[in-house]
Every structure is written in C-alpha cells, then in structure tokens.
C-alpha cells in the first residue's frame, strides 16, 4: 500500500499520495487507501487544530469581501434613485463631499437611537450631505407617520419636514389625524393642508418608490444606510460612521 503523508503549504493543508507518476484520484482509491487518507487528515487536524480557525477566518474574510463588492455594485446601479431623487429630503451639508442616505421607520427603536448619532455626525463632521428615505415597514402606524412627514415636505417645504421628522423620532402620541394635527399645531404648521395631502397619489408614489428601491438594494430592516458607495446595514454609532467616512475620503 502506498504511503500517504500530509504536507502543509502557505495556502493551507495539502495531502499527497506517494503514487509514482499518478495523480490523486479519490474515485479510484481502494477502501484501504481511503481509510488511511481519512486517518491522516483526522490526525493532522487534531495535531494542528488552529487550522480550523484559520480556515474560518479566511472564509469570513472572503464572504465579507463578496458582500462589500455586492453592495458597491447595488449602489452603483441605483445611484440616481439614491442620490438624485427630487422627492427625498436633503439635509446636512448639501455640498458635502460624502453623501449619507438613511432608510428609516419612525416606529423603529434603532432608528430612534440612530437619529441622535446621525445628528451628531452631521454637526461634528460638517461635510456630509444627508438624505432621508422614508421606508415604513413596521405596520400601519409606520405608514401613517411617513405619510404625514412626506405630506409636510410636499406642502410646507424642507424646514417644516425637518421639524416634523425630528419630532416624530421622539413622538409617543397617536398616529392618526388628531395626533398629527396637534403635532402640526405645536410646530406652527397648517395641519389641515398637510393631513389632506397624506393620501394623495404624490405621497403614495414616494413610499412605493422607496420600497421598490429598498427591494432592489436587498434592504429588509431599518435603519439601513448608504455612505458613499458602501451599504451599511443596521444601527451604527457616531464614531463608527465617522471612521467609515474617513476611510472613504482616504481612498
């Protein structure tokens, strides 16, 4: 029976049969050779268990790279809808060198946490353009809140939208016409005009377009972000977002 010995290379674990002038053909091996090969592999792994963690690390790195590249490709294909949609509110520094897009839901607890983190980032950095994508996915009340915010933007403009957007992030009242009317009155807005706009075709289109965009980007939860050409899925603290912005600028 030919001898079988393990060989370790820089690329990982290699096994070689000492079969003269023959390539390793697992299908043509005898039962005895198969058993010996299995024993050699098992013994090598038991003697060198760290190679399992090395293999896992390599796999995770490859998967992360693949996911990052897939995200970059999705952002590139959908760049116009992400960065140039006239129906979306734009804040931060409109002339900033990096654009941050957030897909959010007013009833999402992590969106509420992220709101303060994003505000801190925009204030501290000062060179980030910020776009909000109303992306209600947590039920009827989420949809109503987004309808109210979008209607505010369409009826009363950017400043009014920001006031409503910020207020809804901490709002605990009823998500209905009465609650929205009180909120609008508190902010000095025309409640009747805004509420009458909530179920319009124009508002329907914004929500439908955002949901279609989210589907193309494989977004299934909120908050989700796009910064530059990168997809960032889930809540991120201010420091982490700043680090990513710095890396984008450096590259």
From TrEMBL:
Q: Which Gene3D superfamilies match?
A: Glutaredoxin
Which keywords appear in this protein's UniProt record, sorted alphabetically?
Isomerase, Signal
Q: Report the leader peptide range.
A: 1-23
Does the record bear Mitochondrion in its keywords? no
Name the domain of life this protein comes from.
Bacteria
One Pfam family from the UniProt entry?
Answer: DSBA
PROSITE patterns from the UniProt entry: THIOREDOXIN_2
Q: Please name the GO terms that the record assigns under molecular function.
A: isomerase activity; oxidoreductase activity
The Thioredoxin domain is annotated at: 15-250
Q: Which InterPro entries match?
A: DSBA-like_thioredoxin_dom (IPR001853), ScsC_N (IPR041205), Thiol:disulfide_interchange (IPR051470), Thioredoxin-like_sf (IPR036249), Thioredoxin_domain (IPR013766)
Q: What is this protein called?
A: Protein disulfide isomerase II DsbC
From which source organism is this entry? Roseovarius gaetbuli
Q: What is the lineage of its organism?
A: Bacteria, Pseudomonadati, Pseudomonadota, Alphaproteobacteria, Rhodobacterales
């Amino acid at each position: 029976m030919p001898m079988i010995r393990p060989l370790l290379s820089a690329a990982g674990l290699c096994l070689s049969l000492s079969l003269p002038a023959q390539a390793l053909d697992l299908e043509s091996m005898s039962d005895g050779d198969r058993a010996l090969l299995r024993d050699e592999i098992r013994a090598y792994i038991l003697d060198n268990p760290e190679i399992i963690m090395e293999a896992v690390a390599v796999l995770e790195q490859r998967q992360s790279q693949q996911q990052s590249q897939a995200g970059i490709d999705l952002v590139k294909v959908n760049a116009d809808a992400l960065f140039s949609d006239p129906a979306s509110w734009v804040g931060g520094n409109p002339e900033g060198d990096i654009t941050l897009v957030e897909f959010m839901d007013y009833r999402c607890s992590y969106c509420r946490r992220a709101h303060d983190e994003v505000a801190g980032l925009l204030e501290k950095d000062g060179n980030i353009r910020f776009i909000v994508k109303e992306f209600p996915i947590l039920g009827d009340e989420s949809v109503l809140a987004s309808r109210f915010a979008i209607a505010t933007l369409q009826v009363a403009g950017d400043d009014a939208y920001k006031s409503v957007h910020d207020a809804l992030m901490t709002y605990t009242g009823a998500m209905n016409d009465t609650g929205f009317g009180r909120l609008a009155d508190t902010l000095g807005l025309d409640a009747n005009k805004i509420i009458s706009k909530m179920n319009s075709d124009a508002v329907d289109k914004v929500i439908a377009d955002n949901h279609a965009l989210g589907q193309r980007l494989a977004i299934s939860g909120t908050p989700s972000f796009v910064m530059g050409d990168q997809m960032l899925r889930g809540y991120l603290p201010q420091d982490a977002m700043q680090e990513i912005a710095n890396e984008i600028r450096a590259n």
